[in-house]
Amino acid sequence: MDDIGGNEGDEAMSVAGRSERTEDITVTLAVGQEKELPVVPTAAGRSRDREMHAILEIGVSNNGAPGIVTGGVRGAGPALAEVLIVDTSRSMLHPDAKLRAAKDATVAALRLLPEGTAFAVLSGRFDATVVHPGPDREGMAVAGTAEREAAERAVRILDANGGTAIGHWLDLARRLLSKQSAPVKHVLLLTDGHNEHDHRAGMRLDTALEACDGRFVCDAWGIGDDWDADLLLGITRRLHGRAGAVRRESELPAAYEELVNGLLGTAVPELRIKITPTPGTVIRQVKQVVPKEQELLATGAELGSRGAEYVTRAWGEETRHFQVVLTADPTGRETDEDLQLAAVDVVVPDFGPAVRLPAPQPVLVRWTDNPLDASRQHPGVRRHELYQQASAAVARAYRAWLRRAEGRAEADRELARALALAGELGDAQLLGALRRIEAEPGTGRVRDGLKDVDWQHLILSSAMTTPPEQPAEGPPAAGPAAAGPENPPGADELIECPGCSWLGPADSVYCGRCGRLLGGAW
After folding, report:
1. Radius of gyration of the chain (CA)
2. What is the sign, positive or negative, of the torsion defined by CA atoms of 177, 178, 179, 183?
3. Which of 70, 236, 274, 486 reaches 20 to 30 Å from 283, CA-CA?
């Protein structure tokens, strides 16, 4: 996988902020969990009984400084490389307001690109062509007055014809961006329909996504009445971006301006979550759950091995939540005592600005034979389960609605269920989206006269999540202090675990073998 913003395996990865520079960016980490797990499973074959679910809350703040795109990074190259993809298939002319809005929005985005930004505009049909800087020029253009004006002229004369094969579009963007060294590589894709000609394409979408994963971040946007929410979500979940759509063509330029302004606020191009389990602990799953669900795959190590890193991309000033699922065997372990299952750390590329990173945090377990203690669930985990149930209810309601009269009763039941779940979540945005579908407030019945696109907007809305209302109980467990000039690590100092005689660094809080609490706890 290509590193966006750093060299693969850099442990000079900014453990950056643990350096002597004044920190421009602050990263925070808190672990929320219910620690109790049963020593004896409550039912045969119930592996979930011994699954530890923890919620990682990671925040990034640029402390009032500009984002790296506008504030710059070390070195002479641009901080941003941007590819704008415009769907120019024949359907963009029905009505032609879609193509006009696409041109206006693309021009609006071009005008916001900072001086020196590497950029290209692509036209997407059965294949993809470079609109600017043109197929006869190698590489990408560099933003400046003349190049922006030339790109705008090229966009203004775009016409529409042919079909849709998005794999081609993304693969051309990948080839252009592969020659760029900018830490932030981004694609903004617009389409008005389905990927209907994928079966005829030389580059299938799933193949293109495999090739593009890790090379850039892609936001995908829908326009008109015939775009596919699942298509947009499939692209953006794989390429770490956001999916959205406008209800009216005239809204697209403003949406593009908001997207590009958000991109200009990028604080960290890449952030890695490093999880190191203790012996006997297996990493089962790591996924982002707020502000959207996104599965994360381990890089540089086999899933569940001694340690693994999970890459997240394109952070602005924001907070995201991640769910970590671990399993462990309690055989031979102490009961009713806090033991460490894994250590969680955060690293970022050394891309320029100094970064203050949090100390590593433990994921703990307390093995218990009390079934009441073992039955508790962290509110963040429960909240994500409710979102999954609400999204599934929306999907079932849509499928039932497609069956028209035959599926009407089922569609009503599933809509009512989704409304109840959104109410329990207290998610005003999701409630509002569901009420656009509801006939009358409180009825739980599907409105007459809906179009397919109304459901597509709802599917996108149901994919977005918000954090729990209440933070994780209690302060996060203290981790070892970050090394630095005022706190140099004792290279020759060791501590011995009184339980298993493991030897480790003197600043270890928990034993690296048995997970016992160290540091004077005995």
Report:
1. 25
2. positive
3. 236
Does 488 have pLDDT greater than 60?
no
pLDDT at 43 exceeding the cut of 70: no
Residue 447 has pLDDT above 70, yes or no: yes
Q: How far is 514 from 365, CA to CA, in rounded Å?
A: 11
35 half-sphere exposure, CB direction, 13 A CA radius: 20
CA torsion through residues 14, 18, 19, 25, sign: positive
250 CB neighbour count, 10 Å cutoff: 12
Locus of tokens 């690590």: 489
pLDDT average, residue stretch 494-511: 71
Q: How many residues comprise the chain?
A: 522
- Contact between 6 and 184 (Cβ < 8 Å): no
CB atoms within 10 A of CB 30: 19
Report the alpha-carbon distance of residue 375 to residue 494 in Å, rounded: 38
Contact yes or no for 343/361 (Cβ under 8 A): yes
Q: pLDDT value at position 489?
A: 41
Q: For residue 246, how many C-alpha atoms fall within 13 Å in the half-sphere facing its CB? A: 22
Residues 203-258: pLDDT tens digits?
A: 899 999 999 999 999 999 999 999 999 999 999 999 999 999 999 999 999 999 99
Pairing label, strands 80-87, 51-61? unpaired
Assigned token pair, 219: 């936001």
Which residue's structure tokens are 């569901």?
Answer: 434
Rounded (10°) angle between helices 205-212 and 166-177: 20
CA distance 368 to 336: 6
Contacts of 448 (CB under 8 A, 6+ apart): 439
Q: How confident is the model at residue 484 (pLDDT cuts 50, 70, 90)?
A: very low
The structure tokens listed for 121 are: 């505009």
